[in-house]
TrEMBL record:
The keyword Transmembrane does not apply. This is Ribosome maturation factor RimP. It comes from the Bacteria. GO terms for cellular component: cytosol. It holds the Pfam family RimP_N. Coiled coil: none annotated. The keyword Phosphoprotein does not apply. Required for maturation of 30S ribosomal subunits. Keywords: Cytoplasm, Ribosome biogenesis. InterPro entries: Ribosome_maturation_RimP, RimP_C, RimP_N, RimP_N_sf. The gene is rimP. It is found in: Cytoplasm.
Length: 187
């Protein structure tokens, strides 16, 4: 009997068993099917879901947002959704290992990926990356049309000069590689 087998025999004699193979939590796709109806009851959509970690260090990160409108999700609503999701997860969880549930709404600087994200950001300053690989630039989102966003590109000004913008123009959706809101503290 080698040292490893001897230690295993000693642990078994003391009533300590080897860790069993933990089943992983439901797949992300199975979780989506279970959780989307709960989220929709609040008039919200599932932005993203991610399962991270393993064993006793599992975290389920869920991001929810309003389906329509320009309002941001209040913390009270996020808490209510979190409680409802927790109850649903308790009903379907095998109880195999603990996990941390994190429910949140998207941050102010999240990428603008869907048209509803753009509508929510009208009036805000955006960091735009052109699809042609050109240099990124800042622009004020004036409106959102079917053809694309109407943007007023920020002029390059020297420190101390008043911020100004070029006339607004509509850009085609496919001319933008990525966009995200820039936080402004003095607008």
């Amino acid at each position: 009997m080698n040292a490893r087998e001897r230690r295993a025999a000693e642990r078994l004699a003391q009533g300590v068993t080897a860790p069993s193979e933990k089943k992983s939590f439901l797949s992300v796709e199975a979780l989506k099917a279970e959780l989307i109806p709960v989220i929709e009851e609040f008039g919200c959509v599932l932005e993203s879901i991610a399962a991270k970690g393993a064993g006793n260090n599992r975290t389920l990160e869920i991001v929810v947002d309003y389906r329509e409108g320009t309002d941001f999700l209040p913390l009270d609503t996020v808490a209510e959704i979190s409680q409802a999701l927790s109850a649903r997860l308790d009903a379907i969880d095998d109880g195999d290992a603990p996990y941390m549930l994190e429910v949140s709404s998207p941050g102010a600087t999240r990428p603008l990926e869907e048209e509803r994200h753009w509508h929510r950001s009208v009036g805000r300053l955006l960091n735009i990356a052109p699809a042609d690989g050109g240099e990124k630039y800042l622009a004020r989102l004036v409106s959102v049309t079917d053809e694309g966003p109407e943007l007023a590109r920020k002029k390059n000004t020297k420190k101390g000069q008043k911020v100004s913008y070029h006339p607004a123009e509509i850009l085609a959706w496919n001319s933008i590689s990525s966009a995200k809101v820039e936080i402004e503290f003095n607008h």
